[in-house]
Amino acid sequence: MAVVQAAPVFLDRAASVRKACGLIDEAGAAGARLVAFGESFLPGHPIWFHALPPTAGRSRELATAMVENALTVPGPESDLLCEAARRAGAMVVIGLVERPDPGVSVVFDSQMVLSPDGAMLGVRRKLVPAVGERVFFHPGGGESIRVFDSPWGPVSVLAGGENSNPLLTYAMRTLSARIHVALWPPHFHAPGVMQNVVSITGRAVAYQNTAHVLSVAAASDAEAVERVAPDAAHRANLMTMTEEPGSMIYAPGGRILAGPQQGEGILYADIDPDAGTWAQLVNRQYDRPDLLRLSWGGQEGTLPAEPGGRVEGDPEQDSPTDEDLAARARLLIRERFGDALDPDDSEGLVPYVVQILRRSGRLAERVPDSTDPRTALYAGER
Fold first, then answer.
1. Which pLDDT value is given to residue 318?
2. Which ranges of the chain have pLDDT less than 70?
3. Distance from C-alpha of 295 to C-alpha of 175, rounded to nearest angstrom
């Protein structure tokens, strides 16, 4: 496994893609079969929000440059990266500023995942951009709560503060991720802060999810700092943070396999794909889905999903059986009427509720939610 702690050619899409392809080639030649880059590596992270007011003229100029150098996927840049992954024979995870429509100034903090044969496995989007990122990035949706197929089992990918979200990291555990790639920006707002967070969250996810964790921090160089810093004090602060160690690789359970990496470079570690199998087996017995369950995007995560992002209960992949609809109907009736109906009357309502559920597949796939007017009537203790 390889984590690439490197600075992009700041806000230069073409040059940053060329640099990424070269680093993929280098890591592949060294034997890496999974190569991970930091958050928003292409074409750089909006680090200026640590030094400039968001509405300042300079901020607007930098934001415009970011949008103009964002990537549209698929596109010529992603084709080059796919070819680099194929040459290296390596799975690639890389952070990018994604602009789905080149004619619209809407961008996402995204992560692209490529297979060792050069195929596009998918792009996920950060669910909640953090702090100053919110000025630039739109939030991702429930489709980004997923895993990706790999030769070593499901791989999960989260960016920045997502790795500190216990519900989100538990979702990755529910999806049986065996390798977790945690992408991070070059730094936070002050020296020492991000390094501490990366260490805490990386070991926590490795322990709780019994997964290998590749914590990969991006990097900034002197050219980027010079471009965004308004004065000598901010320049010194940013330069201090560029020199801090960041990236690390953990075994299931939290043991450090490599790192921390200081400065630009590639960090390598060999992993045992079978490590964590026994621990995952034991940990499943602690989950108690009959008492505790997690739902997302209208889905419930109580059992492992199939690799490749397939989530149990996805209406586009599963059609509910008559038995499933009847069970859901009885649940809704019981939650709505309690003991007010005798058993025969309650059972007599089941066919009618089943018809409603069948005609409204979307409702049938939703978890009753007291904040949603469509299901508030049926929300209650599950």
1. 52
2. 245, 276-285, 298-320, 359-382
3. 12
Hey, which bits of 218-303 come out as E strands?
248-250, 256-258, 265-268, 294-296, 299-301
Quote the number of domains for the chain: 2
Q: Which amino acid, one-letter code, is at 372?
A: D
- Provide the 8-state DSSP code for 368: P
Output DSSP code: residue 56. S
What pLDDT does residue 27 have?
A: 98
**How does DSSP classify residue 164?**
G
Q: What is the C-alpha separation between 9 and 224, in angstroms, rounded? A: 8
Same domain membership, residue 353 and residue 204: no
Q: Token pair for residue 250?
A: 């953990």
CA 241, 271, 7 angle in degrees (round to 5)? 25
**Residue 135: which CATH number?**
3.60.110.10
As a whole number of angstroms, the distance between CA 205 and CA 117 comes to 28
d(C-alpha 226, C-alpha 158), whole Å: 29
Does 308 fall in a domain?
no
Domain containing residue 256: 2-279
Please, is 370 exposed, middle or buried when counting C-beta atoms within 10 Å of its C-beta (0-12, 13-18, 19+)? exposed
